[in-house]
Amino acid sequence: MTAFVQQLIYGTSYGMNLAVAAAGLALIFGVYRVINLAHGQLIMLGGFATYVVTTQIGTHFFVGFFAAMAVMGLLGIALESTIFRILQARPATDQLLASLGVYMILGTVALRIWGDFEARPVNMPGEAWALHLGEDIRIDGARIVTIAITLALFIGLYFVVYRTHLGRTMRATAQGGETAELMGIRKRRVAALVFFIGGALGGSAGAMLGGLFNVRPDMGFQPLLMALIIIIFGGMGSLGGAIIAGLILGILYNLTVYYVGSKLGDLVPFGVLLIVLMVRPQGLFGLPGRRA
Amino acid sequence: MLEIKNLVLAYGVNRVVRDVSFSVAKGEVFALLGPNGAGKTSILRAISGLVPAVSGDIVFEGKTLLRRRPHSIVLDGIAHVPEGRQIFPEMSVSDNLMVGATVHINNRARVRELEARCLELFPIIRERARQAGGTLSGGEQQQLTIARGLMADPRLLIVDEPTLGLAPAIINTVADSFRKLRDLGLTIIVAEQNADFALKVADHGAVLASGELSFSGSVDTLRDRDVLRRAYLGA
Question: What ipTM was predicted for this assembly?
Answer without folding.
Answer: 0.90
